[in-house]
Amino acid sequence: MTTQPVQAIHAQGLEKSYKMLEVLRGVDFDVARGSIFALLGSNGAGKTTVVNILSTLLKADAGTASVNGFDVATQAADVRESISLTGQFAAVDEILSGRENLVLIARLRHLKDPGPIADDLLDRFSLTDAAARKVSTYSGGMRRRLDIAMSLIGNPQVIFLDEPTNGLDPQGRIEVWQAVKELAEHGTTVLLTTQYLEEAEQLADRIAILHGGRIIVNGTLHELKQLLPPAKVEYVEKQPTLEDVFLAIVGDDGKDGDAGNERSVGTTSKKQR
Amino acid sequence: MTTHFFGDTAVLTGRSLRHITRSLDTIITTTLMPLAFLLLFVYVFGGAINSGSHSYVSYLLPGILLITIASGISYTGFRLFLDMKSGIFERFQSMPIARSSVLWAHVLTSLVANLISLMVVVLVALLIGFRSGAGVLAWLAVAGILMVFTLALTWIAVIAGLSAKSADGAGAFAYPILFLPFISSAFVPTKTMPGPVRAFAEHQPVTSIVNTIRDLFTQQPVGADIWIALAWCVGILIVAYIFAMTIYRRRIS
């Protein structure tokens, strides 16, 4: 690794359809090395599809993408060496203990001393007391923490977190946020998807909104806030929150549905821009 | 890519073997049905069945062993399905490991799990009077045939586990296989059956496998049956393997 590309993730013109349903219709974005990038969108907007393409689980119908300088289609093995994926559902082995889960991943990453690596991560994620317990007895927050700990094994340079706090209680959410912030401080590039606007606001250096199969906005929180006209002063001036920005750009989003609904709102995206 | 194939397969097999040793109930449930059949046929129907010269337990055991395997592989499909469903499959696929090792781990685990179930069934059969004068070589031959049969059915289970939409579907494919021994020489001699049924029974894989194992147990010459049995097993194995791998490649790309 002598000359590292500037961008940790580069996606250009990504398209993907499932049968008749066009999920991605030309997705472009870049993620700078060592930054936290949030992909924001409603359920079914295609966030997971983007993550799956970037993590080599899915082939795009069109477009190119590279992670850590490697093409996801032609250099998939190199991409897999550089990344780690924490999917939407905690991908942990319920029957194994927390420590065994970590040792398993360390072995699969062909690391020398799986034991100490596991113990170190257990400590870092406050799971030492539960290390020997079956994961099926863990709480949602503990499971997610273990899930993220498993993703850190082997120090991958790029980490994908697909809705990392989905289904967590506020306490668990804060724990995960803390973990993500620490990651970025260590220089890891993080791409996280979320439908919680506050999460993007809290964590991300840059935020992109995926809607109607395209990235319709991409910028820092500050830039995104500029997109709204200055708040009209009536009695109290109120800065628009990211939630306001999101809803204004996305349009009527009262119906928050699954993949099937996505097309119906998709057509409004271009006009709004 | 394939440099880590054996290491990765070993690690992943260790993982799924732990699933089995930690939930021994799956072994118990897989052996329960074959054992029930064994007892039912020996102590209830057996008296009315004229199987020839041997004791009925010894006559019946080969078929029961095949039923044990058919019942065991439904768990293989089920375990694979759970992995696919839970997200851990995707985690493995996004890691720098030999990708087919994920499947092979399930296949090897299936072999071990079925071996344990088979031993349990043989032990019970010994308790209720099964005796065989077969030597070490004959026992090894029996074990070999059962292993190839397990492998063949396991790859069918892999197809089911990869393509099932629900946990029930991942196990249900085993039912037709489970009933094949009933229309074979496993329980009664085929010559007692009416023409078309007999024709089917004598030309389906179970009969040749059952006859071979029975001959090995009773120290009879196995004749051509062993080759027919092996041809069936290897044939099913190859076809199922190719199908499973095609589906697998489609799933992971």
Can you tell me about this structure?
- The complex is a heterodimer of chains A (273) and B (253).
- Chain A is 36% helix and 23% strand.
- Chain A has 273 residues and is an alpha/beta fold.
- The model of chain A is unreliable at 253-273 (pLDDT under 50).
- Chain B has 253 residues and is mainly α.
- Chain B has one domain.
- In chain B, 76% of the residues lie in helices and 0% in strands.
- Chain B has helices at 5-22, 25-45, 56-86, 88-93, 101-127, 136-163, 167-172, 174-179, 195-202, 205-217, 225-252.
- Chains A and B meet through helix 2, strand 6 and helix 3 of A and helix 1 and helix 4 of B.
Write the layout of secondary structure elements.
The complex is a heterodimer of chains A (273) and B (253).
Chain A: E1 7-18, E2 21-32, E3 36-40, H1 47-54, E4 62-67, E5 70-71, H2 76-82, E6 83-86, H3 98-108, H4 114-124, H5 140-152, E7 158-162, H6 170-185, E8 189-194, H7 197-203, E9 206-211, E10 214-219, H8 221-226, H9 242-250, H10 262-266, H11 268-272
Parallel strand pairs in A: 3-8, 3-9, 6-7, 7-8
Antiparallel strand pairs in A: 1-2, 1-4, 4-5, 9-10
Helix pairs in contact in A: 3-4, 3-5, 5-6
Chain B: H1 5-22, H2 25-45, H3 56-86, H4 88-93, H5 101-127, H6 136-163, H7 167-172, H8 174-179, H9 195-202, H10 205-217, H11 225-252
Give me the CATH superfamily of chain A.
P-loop containing nucleotide triphosphate hydrolases
Terminal-residue CA separation of chain B = 16 Å
Number of E strands of chain B: 0
Query: Helix count of chain A, per DSSP?
Result: 11
Shape of chain A: globular
Beta-strand portion of chain B reads: under 5%
Proportion of residues in extended strands of chain A:
15-25%
What spatial order of strands do you see in the largest sheet of chain A? 6-7-8-3-9-10
What is the β-strand count of chain A? 10
Give me the number of helical elements of chain B: 11
